[in-house]
Amino acid sequence: MTTPRIALSIAGSDPSGGAGIQADLKTFHALGVYGAAALAGLTVQNTQGVRDARPVDPAFVRAQVEAVLDDLPVAATKLGMLSNAEVAGAVADLLDERRADFGVVVLDPVMVATSGDKLLHDDAISVVRERLMRQADVITPNVPEAAVLLGTGPAVDATGVIAQANALVAAGARAALVKGGHLSDAQVTDAFATAEGVAILSGPRIESRHTHGTGCTLSSAIAAFAARNGDSPQTGVRLPSVEQARDYLMRAIDSGSRWTLSRTPTLGHGPVDHFVDAL
Predict the structure, then answer these.
(1) 179 is catalytic
(2) Which of 114, 189, 194, 211 is catalytic?
(3) Which domains does the chain have, with CATH numbers?
(4) 214 is catalytic
(5) b/e for 234-253, b at 16 or more Cβ within 10 A?
(6) Is 103 a catalytic residue?
(7) Residue 213 annotated to the active site
(8) Is 216 considered catalytic here?
(9) pLDDT digits over 111-151, tens only?
(10) Most exposed residue of 14, 45, 85, 98, measured as fewest CB within 10 angstroms of its CB?
(11) Is 26 in the active site?
């Protein structure tokens, strides 16, 4: 008998399947870990944008997570869209009470969808900044999200991305991966900072409209590789897990760039190919 490595996603939904918990579960499965999920928010969205979003009752979010933790030995947890301050606070409270049961924690501070639609209430930002960021083993904001968390203007170049990552660690994050995909450079530069220093991860930009759910996919891939690689709350999320997750995402974007899914593919943002490695 064997027990597979288990990863848990606490995040919002995407009925079109490209982002949120649906993308997280696809990523977990594609990368060889058993995926569990607790819904923290519901959305009405597709590749064209978000039509509506509603939070799940905080007590019900907590009950979902407790049901998983009481039964399954979770090696890694990904936190995604947490909707509002009440939901984010309920998750933070449970982390305070049962931190060891969550395994490695990867925080993707989802604030705005690829389409530009807002997914996090303003009142939740302080919970993310003051509590969840300090409880997580790594936080994975994009450039605009990092700017909100730091209360500064967004980075405009790779040097700014590096500075944001270092600033988040100085502000209390154990590790920060700031993603430079929002910049327009031919090279996409991400910065992974810890108290020991910063690693620069760079590669050519893949021109594609299929970028829906890239942040969800990357953060869940980090959780999956952290679980597979034996990263723990003691070690934190280590650089190889981040590098492997980033490589997986780049290949998924490249493969998805050749898809046509939407009835109007030139107007929205399609998903990546989560099963790029499947036979």
Answers:
(1) yes
(2) 211
(3) 6-256 (3.40.1190.20)
(4) yes
(5) eebbbeebbebbbebbbebb
(6) no
(7) yes
(8) yes
(9) 865 555 566 777 889 999 999 999 999 999 999 999 999 99
(10) 98
(11) no
